[in-house]
Design goal:
By secondary structure, this protein is mainly beta. It has one domain (about 5-70). About 0% of the residues lie in helices and about 35% in strands. The protein has strands spanning about 5, 10-15, 20-30, 45-50, 65-70. Strands 1, 2, 3, 4 and 5 form a 5-stranded antiparallel beta sheet that branches.
Length: about 90
C-alpha cells in the first residue's frame, strides 16, 4: 500500500485526554490506494500527532507538498505514526 500525506495547514487542535490533561493533533489528508494499487477517488481526512521539541511542546508541521510512504507494512488502528527527519 502507498500513502501520500498532504498537510495543508500548520494549525494545531487541542483535545482533552480521558484521564485529564490535553494533547494536540494536526489535520492532514491521506491519499491511499486500493489492493490493486489504484488511487482511491477521494482523500481521507486524518489527524496526526505533531513532533515535540525538547520542552515537550508540540511543533506544527508546516504545510508541504505531498510526500509518499511506500511499502507501509503496518498501520495501527486509526493512528499512523510518522517519523520526520531533519
Amino acid at each position: 500500500m502507498t500513502i501520500a500525506i498532504d498537510i495543508e495547514s500548520a494549525n494545531l487542535e487541542t483535545r482533552n485526554k480521558k484521564g485529564g490533561g490535553t494533547y494536540q493533533v494536526q489535520e492532514a489528508f491521506a491519499h491511499t490506494t486500493d489492493n490493486h494499487g489504484n488511487p482511491r477517488r477521494y482523500p481521507e481526512r486524518i489527524n496526526i500527532f505533531p513532533p515535540k521539541d525538547a520542552k515537550v511542546m508540540s511543533l506544527p508541521i508546516h504545510p508541504a507538498p505531498i510526500f509518499w510512504l511506500r511499502n507501509l507494512s503496518r498501520l495501527i488502528t486509526d493512528f499512523l505514526s510518522l517519523v520526520f527527519l531533519n
